[in-house]
Write a structure and sequence with these properties.
It is a single chain. The protein is built from 12 helices and no strands. The protein has about 280 residues and is mainly alpha-helical. It has one domain: MetI-like (MetI-like fold), CATH 1.10.3720.10.
Length: about 280
């Protein structure tokens, strides 16, 4: 008797246990790409320094930068700890506030019609311009720095989440009505899950904005963190340390972005964007 294998699913050809492991490793793809991109930049950078004989005080080579990282490892480790706390706190606060505001606008459309133009105006206005006022009101310290970063990360979270709620297909809402779901049931079981891809897209943008916001806040008012270390190194013309801080910021931003992508991968594995990986 001949067995026709044409209709077998491709996953069945994978030995037992291999498919879940492959699925888990799929979440590492964004981090691998980020590290490959960073490695390519480092190679091009070193090649340019050697080919054009650029002096160290203008653009140090990769070796000089890594020597600076080793020599200043204690200072840099303390700065990374400070900046990471600011980034994580501002990201969490921005996502909570952004999602809460999007839910309020979605549930009360008349309020949204009035408030949305004001939100657009606030988004167009450079948030960094408000930073000095926040420092005057909140003083120097963690609160003012996190608040500045939240200003930059809040709007991507809000806009992406609100657009996600407004983009739920009509047939999904019709299905909820046919099942006699109430307003809260429709939101929890249909609208919120359908909006998760948009929410995670906003989260990834918000994470990048949190990194930028934390560094900008440290530029303006801080005596610790990577932004402060960068300013000190620039003031003393320690170019190798300046580039070391920039490299560390790139690595930290890539890792934090990957963590959000990993959470997205496991939260919405059913979505076509994750299945195509």
């Amino acid at each position: 008797m001949t067995i026709d294998n044409a209709g077998l699913d491709s996953a069945s050809a994978i030995p037992g246990g291999a498919a879940p492991r492959l699925e888990a490793f799929a979440g590492l793809v964004p981090l691998v790409y980020a590290l490959l991109g960073l490695g390519t930049i480092l190679l091009v950078w070193q090649a340019a320094v050697v080919a054009f004989r650029i002096p160290d005080y203008t653009l140090p080579g990769v070796g000089a930068v890594f020597r600076a990282i080793v020599q200043e490892r204690n200072t840099l480790a303390a700065a990374v700890a400070v900046t990471t706390v600011e980034i994580v706190l501002s990201f969490i606060a921005a996502m909570v506030l952004g999602i809460a505001a999007a839910i309020a606008l979605h549930w009360w459309p008349r309020v949204a019609a009035v408030v949305w133009p004001l939100i657009i105006f606030a988004k167009i206005t450079p948030q960094v311009a408000v930073a000095p006022l926040l420092i005057v009101v909140l003083g120097l310290g963690l609160t003012s720095k996190v608040s500045i970063a939240v200003l930059l990360a809040f709007f991507p979270a809000l806009v992406a989440t609100y657009v996600g709620f407004k983009s739920v297909p009509a047939d999904v809402l019709e299905l909820a009505r046919s099942m006699r779901m109430g307003r809260a049931g429709t939101f929890l079981h249909f609208e919120l899950p359908a909006s998760l891809p948009h929410i995670f897209s906003g989260a990834k943008i918000a994470m990048g904005s949190s990194v930028i916001g934390a560094i900008v806040a440290e530029f303006i008012s801080s005596n610790a963190g990577l932004g402060y270390t960068l300013l000190v190194a620039m003031g003393s013309i320690e170019t190798a340390l300046v580039m070391a801080v920039i490299v560390i910021l790139g690595l930290e931003g890539s890792i934090l972005y990957w963590l959000v992508s990993l959470a997205e991968h496991f939260a919405i594995r059913w979505h076509v964007s994750q299945r195509r990986r």
